[in-house]
Amino acid sequence: MLHLVRRSLLVQLLSVYLLFMIIVLLGGLAVNGAVERQLSGDVQASDQALAQEIALETNLQIRDAESSLAALGKQVNQISDPRAVANIFQTYKLARPDVDHVYWLDPVGVLQVTWPLNSEALNTEFSPPDVVQRARMAVGPVFEVGIAVETTFNAGVIIAQPMRRSDGRLAGIIAASLSLVELSEPLIAVVNAQQRQGRHLMISVIDGRGVLVATPQRERILQTVLDELPGAEQALHNHTVSQLGRGQDGQDWLFSAVPIADAGWAVVVQRPAQEALAVVAQFHLWLLAAIILFACGGLLFWIILLSRVIRPLHTLARQHQALPSSKLSIPMDTTIMASRGDEVGTLARSLVRLELDGLEKLGELRTLLETSNAVVGSLEPHAVVRKIIREARRLVDVQAAAVLLPDEQGTLRVLVSDGHSEQYDQKLALTAENTTSAPVIALRDGAPVQKILESGTSSFSYEDGFRSVLAIPIISRHAGGVVLLVHRTEPHLFNQNEIDLLLTFANYATLAWEHAVLYERSDERLHEVARENERLYRHAAEEKQKLASIMESMHDGLVLTGIDGTILYANQGVRNLLGLREAQLELHSISKLYAALRASAVDLPQLDAVLKRIETAATSEAMVMVNSQEQQRTLHLRLFDVEDEEEQPIGRGLLLRDVTRERELDEFKTTLLAAVGHEVRTPLAAIKGYASTLLQEDVSWSGADQRYFLQTISSEADRLAQMVKNLLDLSRQEAGLLQLNLSPTSVENILPAVVEHERLQYPDSSIHVQIPPTLPEVNIDSARIEVVLRNLLSNALVYGEGSATILVARQGDFITIAISNSGHGIAPDELPHIFERFYRARHGQQQHLGGTGLGLAICKAFVEAHGGKIQAASSQRVTTITFSLPIAVAPATIETLTIDLSPEEWRRV
């Protein structure tokens, strides 16, 4: 079958036509399905939108009634006179025409007041009782569909609002009944408007039990219709549904159900399926008509093509599959087709002429091609020339042949010859001045030249017995020109057919000669290029290795991507900053790097905004914060283009630089200047003020006043000195230059002095200390730890309520000291920051308590310098700061080894 398709144009065209028809039909079916889904979706969306609008309007009407009833309840709750309540109800009823009745119930559900007045229903239990029971337990309004106060027999939506006194007890219940007939009026208007346009539509509103609440068919209100409305049950479960189902008339209807979420109801819009999907049916008819028209047109076109083109071509192809080797006899069919005036007749006549002329040239072409193939089969110049001579002698009837090549001076000399004497090969030399020589003229003019050698001619050819010569130039633009020279012993010229045949052969020989010479030259050049490329490759490899080493040694992250965003290179700095492996980035999209940044981002919305600006080329630099190696780091992102030598973009680069330290230093400098500037002004102002007061000569101060002024100056100077000392200690600790004088010390020895000092500072304070007996010593710098204890105890007394507790305990190899106070506590969001430099809690700022915010930072620095840890915990009333100190380890016993050495051995040592 496959062989038949390949050999027959008729079968090929028929197969293509059938395949095209199948594709068109499949495409039509696909378009039909897509358009049908689109049109059906549009119809469903239209009905759902109508149902959604009705649901929204119904929901708003109920919520409006609830809010107005709640406002009415507040008015009634302040009045005890039934007549006044009835008047208020009358006003409310006039303002709300959609309200059928208004009721006032006592706490047990007995009807006290109703409007319109219904004396028979007064002092009876309100029905339905479920509304009363739910209203007693509710805080806001409740509603239910039914008939309120059976004597009225009016169906409606009953809304009940509990009225409570200031102490929360139930004072009564106010209820209203919304007429379901009024609720159906908007639905009737919509249905009538659709009917005026010739459309059939039905709208139903059902409650959570499937009871019909609102419908244009008023007689069906309060009927249970859940089974009659497909999709309604899903809508009651808060789903929007459109589906086909069987209507009451037995026909197919399209049901679109939408939930009323707040009320727990549903709206169902239904219309006949035949009317709703009329556009789909009309599209099916148009599509079927188009397919039939297309099939008929294609069939007509195929019949014309078959009768006028394919069958004549098939006949010509079958009759001329092989050229005959004998004389032609033109078939009758071909003669008839050759008489036609169209393209098939022209083709038939051309084939006849081709067959008549082709056989004449076929023998010559076959010989020429065989000769040419033999010539071009080698790439060595001398071998090519020898083949040229041998094949030229075989191609035409000659007795000798030679190839002449010009030397550097332009003199033609024998390169290779066949059939000539040794003297001819060695001594022949034809200069450019020899204008009568056939080879010189042929090479100069670029055309064949032939001569008859007559008696008396002085030439090597004549002496060798040759009487006619033909010179054919073989001129190559890249390899230079040579001359093919053939000789005959008979004195007659070469005919035109022999010259043309040799010229055609010379064209092939030219290519062979050029290829051979160029191959010889290119082989030498390739060796040179290979050596140069090897040297350049080694140099490039060394440079690449250096560049790779430099980029890998960078602390900053470097990412290089292609034009399509694929990551081509990512150095070790990127993997260290983001905690990734090399295989996670290489040959992946840049979006994977962005995903890693998002996974470790501190502020994800801010990072997404930065990446969006980078991706849209709105910015090339940005700052982001990420969590890396259990700490927050600030990264500076810089995007740049990578261009080639012609300044054309070939990729992009992304540089990630960790600027956390620089940013911290900037923030530290700014905060330090602000804090120090603020805190230094207060003691300086006091020192300046009291010193200026003492220096006034027009006022005499008592000794007690002078002493008070000097004590104030001294205390403020001490405060300045302590501030400077704290800053210096903190700077030394950050620079790693803080020196500790460690020695084994008992906590019992340093606590009393600290406690006594704070008691003197705060006489009204209460400090409780609990130290277990037999505590081991700790290896500490006593002065530094005293600073820690004083700062923590002072903070506990200042921010507490004048009392503090110190608990000392042993935990493993550490002694823990916990200092607690009772006060306002520290907010959970502030706890992670209280040990930061210059940070002060909001409570301290609100109480306008002094301080630079360095005390807890210095405590943390001193404790961590000892190898301990400090942490804070706080509740609403109790704040505890705990720190640990390492227990002193007893020194190991050192054994002394005595070695006796001679003086000579000591010198060698």
Automatic annotation (TrEMBL):
Subcellular localization is given as: Cell membrane
Per its UniProt entry, which superkingdom is the organism in? Answer: Bacteria
- GO terms for biological process? osmosensory signaling via phosphorelay pathway
Stretches of the chain forming a coiled coil according to its record: none
Q: How does it sit in the membrane?
A: Multi-pass membrane protein
Q: Which Gene3D superfamilies match?
A: 1.10.287.130, 3.30.450.40, 6.10.340.10, Histidine kinase-like ATPase, C-terminal domain, PAS domain
What sort of enzyme, by top EC class, is this? transferase
Could you tell me what this protein is called?
A: histidine kinase
